[in-house]
Amino acid sequence: MEADExxxxxxxxxxxxxxxxxxxxxxxxxxxxxxxxxxxxQSEEVAQEVLLETWRSAGRFDPSRGSAxxxxxxxxxxxxxxxxxxxxxxxxxxxxxxxRYHDPAFDQVAEEVEAxxxxxxxxxxxxxxxxxxxxxVTLAYYDGYTYREVADRLSLPLGTVKTRMRDGLTRLRxxxxxxx
Amino acid sequence: MSVLGLFRREDLHSLAAPYALDALxxxxxxxxxxxxxxxxxxxxxxxxxxxxAVRLAWSQAAEPPAHLRSRVLAAVQRxxxxxxxxxxxxxxxxxxxxxxxxxxxxxxxxxxxxxxxxFVPFATATAAAALVVAxxxxxxxxxxxxELNAERDRAREIAHVLAAxxxxxxxxxxAQGRSIGVVASAAEGxxxxxxxxxxxxxxxxxHQLWLMRPDAQPRSLGLFDPDTxxxxxxxxxxxxxxxxxxxxxxxxxxxxxxxxxxxxxxxVGFGE
Lengths: 180, 272
Description:
- Chain A: InterPro entries: RNA_pol_sigma-70-like, RNA_pol_sigma-70_dom, RNA_pol_sigma70_r2, RNA_pol_sigma70_r4_t2, RNA_pol_sigma_r2, RNA_pol_sigma_r3/r4-like, WH-like_DNA-bd_sf.
- The structure holds two protein chains of two kinds.
- Chain A is an all-alpha fold.
- Chain A is built from nine helices and no strands.
- In chain B, strand 1 and strand 2 form a beta hairpin.
Protein backbone atom coordinates (compact mmCIF):
# COMPACT_ATOMS: atom_id res chain seq x y z
CA MET A 1 0.00 0.00 0.00
CA GLU A 2 1.23 3.51 -0.77
CA ALA A 3 2.00 6.04 1.92
CA ASP A 4 -0.88 8.31 0.92
CA GLU A 5 -3.43 5.57 1.45
CA UNK A 6 -1.77 4.47 4.68
CA UNK A 7 -1.96 8.01 6.02
CA UNK A 8 -5.72 7.96 5.61
CA UNK A 9 -5.92 4.75 7.66
CA UNK A 10 -3.49 6.12 10.22
CA UNK A 11 -5.66 9.21 10.57
CA UNK A 12 -8.47 6.83 11.52
CA UNK A 13 -6.35 5.44 14.36
CA UNK A 14 -5.17 2.29 12.58
CA UNK A 15 -1.97 1.22 14.35
CA UNK A 16 -1.19 -1.57 11.91
CA UNK A 17 -1.31 0.93 9.08
CA UNK A 18 1.09 3.08 11.05
CA UNK A 19 3.46 0.14 11.35
CA UNK A 20 3.43 -0.17 7.59
CA UNK A 21 3.89 3.53 7.17
CA UNK A 22 6.82 3.32 9.54
CA UNK A 23 8.40 0.78 7.23
CA UNK A 24 8.08 3.16 4.31
CA UNK A 25 9.19 6.41 5.85
CA UNK A 26 11.47 5.66 8.79
CA UNK A 27 14.55 5.27 6.59
CA UNK A 28 14.18 8.57 4.76
CA UNK A 29 13.17 10.38 7.95
CA UNK A 30 16.02 8.99 10.01
CA UNK A 31 18.57 9.50 7.23
CA UNK A 32 17.58 13.10 6.68
CA UNK A 33 17.51 13.94 10.37
CA UNK A 34 20.88 12.34 10.93
CA UNK A 35 22.35 14.23 8.00
CA UNK A 36 21.28 17.53 9.48
CA UNK A 37 21.64 16.86 13.20
CA UNK A 38 24.77 14.65 12.97
CA UNK A 39 24.74 13.54 16.60
CA UNK A 40 23.38 9.96 16.60
CA UNK A 41 21.50 10.11 19.91
CA GLN A 42 19.88 13.44 19.08
CA SER A 43 19.03 12.22 15.60
CA GLU A 44 17.14 9.30 17.04
CA GLU A 45 15.29 11.59 19.37
CA VAL A 46 14.25 13.95 16.61
CA ALA A 47 13.30 11.11 14.27
CA GLN A 48 11.15 9.65 17.02
CA GLU A 49 9.43 13.00 17.57
CA VAL A 50 8.74 13.36 13.88
CA LEU A 51 7.31 9.87 13.51
CA LEU A 52 5.17 10.32 16.57
CA GLU A 53 3.97 13.67 15.30
CA THR A 54 3.04 11.95 12.06
CA TRP A 55 0.84 9.61 14.05
CA ARG A 56 -0.69 12.40 16.12
CA SER A 57 -1.45 14.79 13.27
CA ALA A 58 -2.17 12.35 10.44
CA GLY A 59 -5.72 13.69 10.39
CA ARG A 60 -4.45 16.97 9.03
CA PHE A 61 -2.90 15.37 5.99
CA ASP A 62 -4.80 16.22 2.85
CA PRO A 63 -3.75 14.08 -0.14
CA SER A 64 -5.01 16.67 -2.59
CA ARG A 65 -2.30 19.01 -1.39
CA GLY A 66 0.75 16.88 -1.97
CA SER A 67 2.12 13.46 -1.14
CA ALA A 68 2.28 12.04 2.37
CA UNK A 69 5.98 11.53 1.93
CA UNK A 70 6.73 15.17 1.23
CA UNK A 71 4.50 16.10 4.09
CA UNK A 72 6.44 13.89 6.48
CA UNK A 73 9.87 14.81 5.14
CA UNK A 74 9.12 18.52 5.24
CA UNK A 75 8.15 18.10 8.87
CA UNK A 76 11.30 16.06 9.54
CA UNK A 77 13.52 18.69 7.97
CA UNK A 78 11.92 21.50 9.91
CA UNK A 79 12.37 19.66 13.19
CA UNK A 80 15.94 18.66 12.41
CA UNK A 81 16.89 22.22 11.52
CA UNK A 82 15.27 23.58 14.67
CA UNK A 83 17.27 21.13 16.73
CA UNK A 84 20.62 21.80 15.11
CA UNK A 85 20.13 25.56 15.37
CA UNK A 86 19.34 25.53 19.04
CA UNK A 87 22.34 23.28 19.63
CA UNK A 88 24.53 25.69 17.65
CA UNK A 89 23.19 28.68 19.51
CA UNK A 90 24.16 27.00 22.77
CA UNK A 91 27.66 26.33 21.53
CA UNK A 92 27.99 29.83 20.12
CA UNK A 93 27.14 31.38 23.42
CA UNK A 94 30.08 29.57 24.96
CA UNK A 95 32.62 30.14 22.29
CA UNK A 96 32.11 32.73 19.63
CA UNK A 97 34.87 31.47 17.44
CA UNK A 98 35.03 32.74 13.93
CA UNK A 99 34.19 29.64 11.98
CA ARG A 100 35.97 29.56 8.69
CA TYR A 101 34.24 28.33 5.62
CA HIS A 102 34.75 24.69 4.77
CA ASP A 103 33.36 22.83 1.81
CA PRO A 104 29.98 21.23 2.48
CA ALA A 105 30.36 17.65 3.52
CA PHE A 106 28.15 15.94 1.03
CA ASP A 107 31.10 13.96 -0.25
CA GLN A 108 31.78 12.30 3.02
CA VAL A 109 28.15 11.46 3.56
CA ALA A 110 27.73 9.99 0.12
CA GLU A 111 30.52 7.59 0.96
CA GLU A 112 29.16 6.80 4.35
CA VAL A 113 26.16 4.88 3.17
CA GLU A 114 25.66 2.48 0.37
CA ALA A 115 24.68 3.82 -2.99
CA UNK A 116 20.98 3.85 -3.68
CA UNK A 117 19.71 4.81 -7.07
CA UNK A 118 18.13 8.01 -5.84
CA UNK A 119 21.27 8.95 -4.01
CA UNK A 120 23.32 8.49 -7.15
CA UNK A 121 20.89 10.55 -9.14
CA UNK A 122 20.82 13.42 -6.66
CA UNK A 123 24.57 13.33 -6.30
CA UNK A 124 24.95 13.47 -10.04
CA UNK A 125 22.57 16.38 -10.29
CA UNK A 126 24.24 18.26 -7.44
CA UNK A 127 27.50 17.87 -9.31
CA UNK A 128 25.99 19.69 -12.23
CA UNK A 129 25.22 22.83 -10.27
CA UNK A 130 27.75 25.61 -10.09
CA UNK A 131 29.85 25.47 -6.93
CA UNK A 132 28.01 28.45 -5.43
CA UNK A 133 24.59 27.03 -6.21
CA UNK A 134 25.54 23.71 -4.70
CA UNK A 135 27.10 25.19 -1.60
CA UNK A 136 24.18 27.54 -1.05
CA VAL A 137 21.67 24.70 -1.29
CA THR A 138 23.57 22.09 0.70
CA LEU A 139 24.77 24.40 3.48
CA ALA A 140 21.15 25.37 4.04
CA TYR A 141 19.41 22.05 3.51
CA TYR A 142 21.90 19.50 4.75
CA ASP A 143 23.74 21.58 7.32
CA GLY A 144 20.83 23.63 8.58
CA TYR A 145 22.33 27.10 8.13
CA THR A 146 20.09 30.09 7.52
CA TYR A 147 20.65 31.98 4.30
CA ARG A 148 22.27 34.78 6.28
CA GLU A 149 24.74 32.32 7.76
CA VAL A 150 25.32 30.85 4.32
CA ALA A 151 26.03 34.32 2.93
CA ASP A 152 28.46 34.86 5.78
CA ARG A 153 30.26 31.60 5.25
CA LEU A 154 30.54 32.09 1.51
CA SER A 155 31.28 35.83 1.81
CA LEU A 156 28.48 36.64 -0.60
CA PRO A 157 25.78 39.33 -0.53
CA LEU A 158 22.41 38.13 0.78
CA GLY A 159 20.71 38.71 -2.57
CA THR A 160 23.23 36.52 -4.34
CA VAL A 161 22.68 33.67 -1.91
CA LYS A 162 18.90 33.84 -2.33
CA THR A 163 19.31 33.73 -6.09
CA ARG A 164 21.81 30.87 -5.95
CA MET A 165 19.42 28.89 -3.77
CA ARG A 166 16.56 29.38 -6.16
CA ASP A 167 18.64 28.68 -9.27
CA GLY A 168 20.17 25.65 -7.58
CA LEU A 169 16.81 24.15 -6.67
CA THR A 170 15.36 24.87 -10.10
CA ARG A 171 18.30 23.34 -11.85
CA LEU A 172 18.12 20.34 -9.58
CA ARG A 173 14.48 19.94 -10.56
CA UNK A 174 15.34 20.03 -14.26
CA UNK A 175 18.03 17.45 -13.77
CA UNK A 176 16.01 15.13 -11.55
CA UNK A 177 12.86 15.42 -13.59
CA UNK A 178 9.71 17.03 -12.29
CA UNK A 179 7.68 13.90 -11.70
CA UNK A 180 10.33 11.68 -10.19
CA MET B 1 1.61 51.27 -3.90
CA SER B 2 4.65 53.18 -2.77
CA VAL B 3 8.04 52.42 -4.18
CA LEU B 4 9.09 51.24 -0.79
CA GLY B 5 6.09 48.92 -0.54
CA LEU B 6 6.87 47.46 -3.93
CA PHE B 7 10.45 46.94 -2.98
CA ARG B 8 9.55 45.16 0.23
CA ARG B 9 7.11 42.93 -1.59
CA GLU B 10 9.75 41.93 -4.11
CA ASP B 11 12.06 41.37 -1.23
CA LEU B 12 9.59 38.98 0.34
CA HIS B 13 9.15 37.06 -2.91
CA SER B 14 12.85 36.41 -3.04
CA LEU B 15 12.60 34.54 0.25
CA ALA B 16 10.74 31.63 -1.36
CA ALA B 17 13.86 29.55 -1.94
CA PRO B 18 15.42 30.11 1.48
CA TYR B 19 12.02 29.37 2.98
CA ALA B 20 11.69 26.11 1.06
CA LEU B 21 15.11 25.14 2.41
CA ASP B 22 14.10 26.08 5.98
CA ALA B 23 16.83 28.72 5.86
CA LEU B 24 15.03 31.72 7.34
CA UNK B 25 15.45 33.17 10.81
CA UNK B 26 12.35 32.65 12.97
CA UNK B 27 10.99 36.19 12.61
CA UNK B 28 11.60 36.21 8.87
CA UNK B 29 9.91 32.85 8.65
CA UNK B 30 6.84 34.22 10.38
CA UNK B 31 6.73 37.30 8.16
CA UNK B 32 7.04 35.21 5.06
CA UNK B 33 4.36 32.75 6.19
CA UNK B 34 2.03 35.64 6.79
CA UNK B 35 2.80 36.89 3.31
CA UNK B 36 2.17 33.40 1.88
CA UNK B 37 -1.40 33.27 3.06
CA UNK B 38 -2.22 36.24 0.82
CA UNK B 39 -0.01 35.42 -2.15
CA UNK B 40 -1.13 32.44 -4.21
CA UNK B 41 1.74 32.81 -6.61
CA UNK B 42 4.26 32.60 -3.77
CA UNK B 43 2.48 29.65 -2.19
CA UNK B 44 2.64 27.80 -5.50
CA UNK B 45 6.27 28.65 -5.95
CA UNK B 46 7.16 27.59 -2.44
CA UNK B 47 5.44 24.27 -2.98
CA UNK B 48 7.37 23.59 -6.15
CA UNK B 49 10.66 24.55 -4.52
CA UNK B 50 9.84 22.52 -1.43
CA UNK B 51 9.22 19.45 -3.57
CA UNK B 52 12.70 19.95 -5.00
CA ALA B 53 14.12 20.21 -1.53
CA VAL B 54 12.40 16.97 -0.55
CA ARG B 55 14.33 15.20 -3.28
CA LEU B 56 17.44 16.16 -1.38
CA ALA B 57 15.94 14.45 1.64
CA TRP B 58 15.26 11.19 -0.16
CA SER B 59 18.81 10.76 -1.19
CA GLN B 60 19.84 10.61 2.46
CA ALA B 61 17.70 7.64 3.48
CA ALA B 62 19.45 5.45 6.02
CA GLU B 63 18.45 2.39 8.00
CA PRO B 64 17.33 3.52 11.47
CA PRO B 65 18.40 1.46 14.49
CA ALA B 66 15.97 -1.37 15.28
CA HIS B 67 15.12 -0.03 18.74
CA LEU B 68 13.72 3.14 17.18
CA ARG B 69 10.90 1.09 15.72
CA SER B 70 9.89 -0.48 19.02
CA ARG B 71 10.14 2.86 20.80
CA VAL B 72 8.00 4.66 18.27
CA LEU B 73 5.40 1.91 18.10
CA ALA B 74 5.21 1.75 21.89
CA ALA B 75 4.79 5.53 22.06
CA VAL B 76 2.04 5.36 19.44
CA GLN B 77 0.11 2.93 21.63
CA ARG B 78 -0.12 5.44 24.44
CA UNK B 79 -0.36 8.64 22.39
CA UNK B 80 -3.81 9.91 21.51
CA UNK B 81 -4.28 11.45 18.09
CA UNK B 82 -5.38 14.99 17.48
CA UNK B 83 -8.95 15.16 16.42
CA UNK B 84 -8.86 15.67 12.67
CA UNK B 85 -8.90 19.05 10.97
CA UNK B 86 -10.15 21.73 13.24
CA UNK B 87 -12.66 23.72 11.21
CA UNK B 88 -11.61 27.20 10.22
CA UNK B 89 -7.94 26.42 10.69
CA UNK B 90 -5.96 26.58 7.49
CA UNK B 91 -2.88 24.83 8.77
CA UNK B 92 -1.17 23.84 11.96
CA UNK B 93 0.65 26.90 13.20
CA UNK B 94 3.89 25.07 13.78
CA UNK B 95 4.01 23.53 10.35
CA UNK B 96 5.04 25.14 7.13
CA UNK B 97 1.98 26.39 5.21
CA UNK B 98 3.06 24.83 1.96
CA UNK B 99 2.61 21.50 3.69
CA UNK B 100 -0.90 22.30 4.72
CA UNK B 101 -1.11 24.73 1.91
CA UNK B 102 -3.76 26.81 0.36
CA UNK B 103 -3.74 25.31 -3.10
CA UNK B 104 -2.38 22.40 -5.08
CA UNK B 105 1.06 22.63 -6.55
CA UNK B 106 0.97 23.84 -10.16
CA UNK B 107 0.95 20.99 -12.64
CA UNK B 108 2.86 18.69 -10.39
CA UNK B 109 0.41 15.94 -9.76
CA UNK B 110 2.54 12.99 -8.88
CA UNK B 111 1.64 9.43 -9.54
CA UNK B 112 1.92 7.71 -6.16
CA UNK B 113 3.71 4.85 -7.87
CA UNK B 114 6.55 7.14 -8.84
CA UNK B 115 7.61 7.30 -5.22
CA UNK B 116 8.41 3.66 -4.97
CA UNK B 117 11.81 3.88 -6.57
CA UNK B 118 12.99 5.71 -3.58
CA PHE B 119 12.55 2.83 -1.21
CA VAL B 120 15.56 0.95 -2.37
CA PRO B 121 16.46 -1.64 0.22
CA PHE B 122 20.06 -1.24 1.17
CA ALA B 123 20.67 -4.96 1.08
CA THR B 124 20.35 -4.89 -2.68
CA ALA B 125 23.00 -2.27 -3.19
CA THR B 126 25.49 -4.91 -4.17
CA ALA B 127 28.09 -5.01 -6.88
CA ALA B 128 25.53 -5.81 -9.53
CA ALA B 129 23.26 -2.98 -8.47
CA ALA B 130 26.24 -0.67 -8.61
CA LEU B 131 26.88 -1.92 -12.10
CA VAL B 132 23.34 -1.10 -13.10
CA VAL B 133 23.65 2.36 -11.68
CA ALA B 134 27.04 2.94 -13.25
CA UNK B 135 25.86 1.98 -16.68
CA UNK B 136 22.80 4.14 -16.27
CA UNK B 137 24.83 7.23 -15.74
CA UNK B 138 27.91 6.49 -17.74
CA UNK B 139 26.43 7.82 -20.92
CA UNK B 140 24.18 10.64 -19.82
CA UNK B 141 26.39 13.54 -20.72
CA UNK B 142 25.42 15.24 -23.93
CA UNK B 143 22.11 13.52 -24.35
CA UNK B 144 18.97 15.26 -25.53
CA UNK B 145 16.26 15.93 -22.99
CA UNK B 146 13.82 13.36 -24.37
CA GLU B 147 16.51 10.73 -24.14
CA LEU B 148 17.14 11.75 -20.58
CA ASN B 149 13.43 11.48 -19.88
CA ALA B 150 13.35 7.99 -21.34
CA GLU B 151 16.34 7.18 -19.19
CA ARG B 152 14.56 8.44 -16.14
CA ASP B 153 11.53 6.32 -16.92
CA ARG B 154 13.82 3.36 -17.17
CA ALA B 155 15.49 4.35 -13.94
CA ARG B 156 12.09 4.21 -12.33
CA GLU B 157 11.39 0.73 -13.64
CA ILE B 158 14.78 -0.36 -12.46
CA ALA B 159 14.27 1.11 -9.06
CA HIS B 160 10.97 -0.70 -8.89
CA VAL B 161 12.80 -4.00 -9.27
CA LEU B 162 15.43 -2.93 -6.77
CA ALA B 163 12.73 -2.03 -4.31
CA ALA B 164 11.16 -5.49 -4.27
CA UNK B 165 11.63 -7.02 -0.82
CA UNK B 166 13.21 -10.14 -2.32
CA UNK B 167 15.42 -8.36 -4.85
CA UNK B 168 18.84 -9.94 -5.16
CA UNK B 169 21.82 -9.28 -7.33
CA UNK B 170 24.39 -11.36 -9.15
CA UNK B 171 27.15 -10.81 -11.68
CA UNK B 172 28.97 -13.08 -14.10
CA UNK B 173 32.21 -12.55 -16.00
CA UNK B 174 33.40 -14.24 -19.15
CA ALA B 175 36.98 -15.20 -19.99
CA GLN B 176 37.70 -11.76 -21.48
CA GLY B 177 36.54 -9.98 -18.34
CA ARG B 178 33.31 -8.72 -19.88
CA SER B 179 30.44 -8.97 -17.45
CA ILE B 180 26.72 -9.37 -17.11
CA GLY B 181 24.91 -8.09 -14.06
CA VAL B 182 21.41 -8.86 -12.87
CA VAL B 183 19.21 -7.58 -10.09
CA ALA B 184 16.11 -9.72 -9.92
CA SER B 185 13.00 -10.24 -7.89
CA ALA B 186 11.52 -13.72 -8.19
CA ALA B 187 8.32 -12.57 -6.48
CA GLU B 188 7.80 -9.81 -9.04
CA GLY B 189 9.14 -11.90 -11.91
CA UNK B 190 11.33 -9.00 -12.92
CA UNK B 191 14.99 -8.44 -13.52
CA UNK B 192 17.30 -5.64 -14.53
CA UNK B 193 20.15 -6.84 -16.68
CA UNK B 194 23.27 -4.94 -17.69
CA UNK B 195 26.11 -5.80 -20.01
CA UNK B 196 29.46 -4.22 -19.65
CA UNK B 197 32.57 -4.42 -21.76
CA UNK B 198 30.83 -5.73 -24.84
CA UNK B 199 31.21 -2.51 -26.74
CA UNK B 200 29.25 -1.56 -29.80
CA UNK B 201 28.30 -4.28 -32.24
CA UNK B 202 28.78 -3.75 -35.97
CA UNK B 203 25.77 -2.18 -37.69
CA UNK B 204 23.03 -4.71 -38.28
CA UNK B 205 23.72 -6.72 -35.15
CA UNK B 206 22.25 -6.58 -31.68
CA HIS B 207 22.62 -8.27 -28.29
CA GLN B 208 19.49 -10.21 -27.44
CA LEU B 209 18.64 -11.49 -23.96
CA TRP B 210 17.13 -14.93 -23.45
CA LEU B 211 15.46 -16.65 -20.56
CA MET B 212 16.54 -20.29 -20.30
CA ARG B 213 14.08 -22.70 -18.73
CA PRO B 214 14.22 -26.47 -18.21
CA ASP B 215 12.37 -28.44 -20.89
CA ALA B 216 11.40 -25.33 -22.84
CA GLN B 217 12.66 -23.20 -25.70
CA PRO B 218 14.62 -20.08 -24.76
CA ARG B 219 12.32 -17.10 -24.50
CA SER B 220 13.38 -13.66 -25.74
CA LEU B 221 13.47 -11.01 -23.01
CA GLY B 222 14.38 -8.18 -25.35
CA LEU B 223 17.18 -6.42 -27.16
CA PHE B 224 19.91 -4.38 -25.54
CA ASP B 225 20.42 -0.75 -26.46
CA PRO B 226 24.12 0.02 -26.17
CA ASP B 227 25.15 0.99 -22.65
CA THR B 228 21.62 0.67 -21.33
CA UNK B 229 20.21 -1.75 -18.76
CA UNK B 230 17.40 -3.95 -19.93
CA UNK B 231 14.34 -4.43 -17.75
CA UNK B 232 12.88 -7.91 -18.20
CA UNK B 233 9.44 -8.73 -16.91
CA UNK B 234 7.24 -11.82 -16.66
CA UNK B 235 10.05 -14.17 -15.61
CA UNK B 236 8.79 -17.51 -14.41
CA UNK B 237 10.14 -18.95 -11.19
CA UNK B 238 11.44 -22.10 -12.88
CA UNK B 239 13.86 -20.08 -15.05
CA UNK B 240 17.39 -21.36 -14.60
CA UNK B 241 19.57 -18.83 -16.38
CA UNK B 242 19.92 -15.84 -18.64
CA UNK B 243 21.83 -15.91 -21.89
CA UNK B 244 22.94 -13.22 -24.33
CA UNK B 245 23.47 -13.87 -28.02
CA UNK B 246 24.40 -11.71 -30.98
CA UNK B 247 21.49 -11.57 -33.42
CA UNK B 248 20.65 -9.69 -36.59
CA UNK B 249 19.01 -6.30 -36.13
CA UNK B 250 15.49 -6.60 -34.77
CA UNK B 251 16.30 -9.81 -32.94
CA UNK B 252 15.41 -13.43 -33.64
CA UNK B 253 12.53 -15.63 -32.47
CA UNK B 254 15.08 -18.19 -31.28
CA UNK B 255 18.84 -17.84 -30.70
CA UNK B 256 20.85 -18.29 -33.89
CA UNK B 257 24.31 -18.07 -32.33
CA UNK B 258 26.13 -19.40 -29.29
CA UNK B 259 25.64 -17.27 -26.17
CA UNK B 260 28.39 -14.72 -25.58
CA UNK B 261 27.63 -14.91 -21.88
CA UNK B 262 25.34 -16.84 -19.60
CA UNK B 263 24.36 -16.31 -15.99
CA UNK B 264 22.59 -18.68 -13.64
CA UNK B 265 19.58 -17.30 -11.79
CA UNK B 266 19.78 -19.67 -8.86
CA UNK B 267 21.54 -17.21 -6.60
CA VAL B 268 18.81 -14.61 -7.21
CA GLY B 269 15.95 -16.85 -6.15
CA PHE B 270 14.91 -18.56 -9.35
CA GLY B 271 15.06 -22.16 -10.50
CA GLU B 272 13.21 -23.57 -7.52
